[in-house]
Amino acid sequence: MGLTSPSITGIDRRFERVFNFQQQGGMAGAMPSFAWENRLLDEHREVDSVWYVAYGSNLHRDRLMCYIAGGRPDGASRRHVGCRDSTPPLEEKVLMIPHRLYFARLSGSWGGGVAFIDATSAFSGQCAPPTALRDSGWTVGRAWRISRSQFEDILAQENGRSPGEVKLDWPDLIQAGRFDLGSGWYRMVVGLATLDSVPAFTFTDIGPSSAAARPPSEAYLKTMAEGLGQCLPDWSGQRIRTYLDLRVQGRIDQ
Length: 254
Known about the structure:
- By secondary structure, the chain is α+β, with helices and mostly antiparallel strands.
- Helices cover 32% and strands 22% of the residues.
- The chain has one domain: Gamma-glutamyl cyclotransferase-like (Hypothetical upf0131 protein ytfp), CATH 3.10.490.10.
- Helix 1 packs antiparallel against helix 2.
């Protein structure tokens, strides 16, 4: 599919009109204001937004913000440059993903395996509210509403590329539901649902057979556990540990 970025010509023209008004002095005695620009930015981000559904370390808000605003997450050795747009997520939701969570590869930053979902099998149902764990074939997802450019920049950083190097054809992606970036650990972009009329996507490896299973480090598990505690405050520490232990052990029959 082609690689293009969405047009923002309309909002650019509105910004130009606001800028020209201010350059000309606006109303007599009025101080220049950025209220209009801020409102236009908010309007554009509403139209341009997408849900990024995290299921691994990006369940944790602070860890996700290292990808967005730059920084090094606690327990990891790698520092991220951040997105071109460093604005925090607009909102968040929690849902259950009907794909199995597993851990594989060896992260030099975390010192162990990292999380993936197995999206090679047929979609086993619709995403659901986290009212029940169902079974270990389901995965907790924390959906972050961000701009499409932020999604592209997080995807780029997850695959060893720089922000701005990944451009998705969003109309094609929304229609097809999947896209293979071609290389990288998280090369598969997978459509999951539509939440509040906004499409929800995640990314993962091409499948469990592409890399050897490997347990995560304690630091990685701690980050995931804290992220689960943030988005599921009703879950006890024991329930979170059980959720993670089952998936680390690959015990999908429980």
